[in-house]
């Protein structure tokens, strides 16, 4: 019997060094933006291709990866999940290869700190039936990215890592589709066996080039929205965008001296007194905020903030702030008690 499930491979074993202190206590995909974890937003994109209950999710985890197991068990209990521990960081396809036993049939590979806004339903449409798809975004300066060149037939002719020129300006955003997961596995096995290493790592671009040499027709799929959650500033940018352009926000009403400046997301279980919240601010469940002003910030669950004025801040879970001012970047369980 043919396995009709969509395989989704999500490498996430990195340490998230650029997002510390938050990633000292949780993996990067579990950082929150606009009321959900980054991982939840990524899975929302996957769900436009197929119901998650009809998918096979393969996570390549590392440091603190058990938190991802718990998150999936709590929030997606009926979804088929597989977890593979990557102890040695040797690159993208080294990670993907670890999930080889789960890769069958149509397969999406995506990276967990990237959110795109796109409808993926065309992937499994028999009328379209693409062999392979690589999502791209036109950028002003392609020299910082991997880019694709496109032939006259409209398919990808090459993938170039950090080009020297501006000629090819379609940057690779980190989402890939292959109609045959078996072909992807075969290319990765060849890449690893032949030690095809670029800058000390195994990159998926080299495996894809092998597939193209074997006849893969790889379709570039432009996206209008490409959101990153790998740095504190990009987490805040992503939070702003989602609050402005999606249905993530809300504007609850308060009668106790609270002013809400949309767009915001405030969890129904948050308690707010005599404060100004917003714009572009997300407040997690169980937060207690009083006599404070918070704008353009993300505050995670169960944090208490008193007599503080925050802007452009990332505040972790279970933090306690009293009398804080300005721009702060505080990981889970931090404490700031300022005296004035």
Helix content: 10-25%
Using the coordinates shown, work out and report the CATH topology of the largest domain.
Spore Coat Polysaccharide Biosynthesis Protein SpsA, Chain A
Counted beta strands? 28
**CATH H level of the largest domain: which superfamily?**
Spore Coat Polysaccharide Biosynthesis Protein SpsA, Chain A
Word description of this protein:
19% of the residues lie in helices and 31% in strands. With 340 residues, the chain is of the alpha/beta class. The chain has 2 domains: 6-228, Spore Coat Polysaccharide Biosynthesis Protein SpsA, Chain A (Alpha-Beta Complex), CATH 3.90.550.10; 249-337, Hexapeptide repeat proteins (UDP N-Acetylglucosamine Acyltransferase, domain 1, 3 Solenoid). Strand 9 and strand 10 (156-161) form a beta hairpin. Helix 3 (92-98) packs across helix 4 and helix 4 crosses helix 5.
List keywords for this structure.
6 helices, 2 domains, 28 strands, elongated, alpha/beta, UDP N-Acetylglucosamine Acyltransferase, domain 1, Spore Coat Polysaccharide Biosynthesis Protein SpsA, Chain A, 340 residues
Quick structural overview:
The protein has 340 residues and is α/β, with parallel strands linked by helices. It has helices spanning 38-46, 66-75, 92-98, 181-193, 204-213, 232-245, and strands at residues 6-11, 32-33, 36-37, 55-61, 80-85, 107-110, 114-116, 132-138, 146-150, 156-161, 170-178, 218-222, 226-228, 259-260, 264-266, 271-273, 276-277, 281-283, 288-290, 293-295, 297-299, 304-306, 309-311, 314-315, 320-322, 325-326, 329-330, 335-337.
